[in-house]
Amino acid sequence: MDSLTQAALGAAVSVAVLRQRAPVWQSALWGAAMGTAPDLDVLIDHGNPVLNMTQHRAHSHALFYQVALAVGLGGAAYWAVAKRAPAAVRGEKTRAIALWSLAMMLAWTTHALLDAMTVYGTRLWLPFSDASVGVGSVFIIDPLYTLPLLLGLAGVWRWAGPMGTAFLWLGLGLSSLYLVWSFAAQQWVLRQVKPQVPNAHVKLLATPSPFNTVLWRVVAVDAAGYYEGWVSLFDKQVKPRWVAYACPASVYEQARTSHEVAELAKLSNGFFCLKGDGTTWRMTDLRMGQEPGYVFAFDISHPAAGDTARATIVQRPFVPPPLPLSLTWLHQRLTSQTPLSLPAWQAQQAADNHQR
Description:
The protein has 356 residues and is α+β, with helices and mostly antiparallel strands. It is 48% helix and 14% strand. The strands form three sheets. A four-stranded antiparallel beta sheet has the order 1-2-3-4. Strands 5-6-9-10 form a four-stranded antiparallel beta sheet.
């Protein structure tokens, strides 16, 4: 999720644990810092753009390491604030350190668990398993998840007594229920779409469109290529208009010896497109974006077959469509005013304008 959401979640859970042990601003500040800290792994250069992508959300997001480090962080946080704490709090050192450790652990682990609800992929189970978890039921920025957390923090800041605590827990509860709703909506969409896939031998993915969990993008992948469609919960009939795109699986068989190709194929859980010849490929992660623009697309070149040591990798720039146009289409498709995908809708708008 975005940094604001992760900071808000970390602050909320920290304040909830330390409600009687530290001032709200203090526990919120520590929680926000710990809630955003795992994403500092983006500063690590792994050698090329593909590995920088696939190694993000790895060790810093692993629950084992987060829990193991929580005690040390809790002790450090207690030591940093103990001098300003009331004497009664300082006198209960063991309990205070335990609570600070719990707060830091929750600020970290909730970050990783929330990231796992997005489609990017999070290696929660390192070092025991390298499998990536990406449920994909919530978009990376969703105000309906973030706002309850911010309102809960505002309430506990404004009211010092039980009313403030009630606001905080209400914010945490509503945001958690929203995640439950997003997962339920995703599973409903998948159940409705599965009987309508182009053929029986496809992998199926459903992810929400930006900022909501009403309009869903569905992608089906098979050996010949992939299909994209859209489903709104407001559609009278759940019947996506599949648009097919060629992407033969045989190209992957030629390129799978490339470490970068294999890593991206694994992270994307098979939802990728690879085109090219024996030495140069264009690889696109189909999970994030929509036709014709994707957030992660790479040109991978090997001067000699299998020569992975000399791979040249360039990440292609992501050029989203104009925001006003995208938001207009998003509103119309979400409210079921049009059944068309964004490219088809843009073409229709251009044709209509030309006729005028």
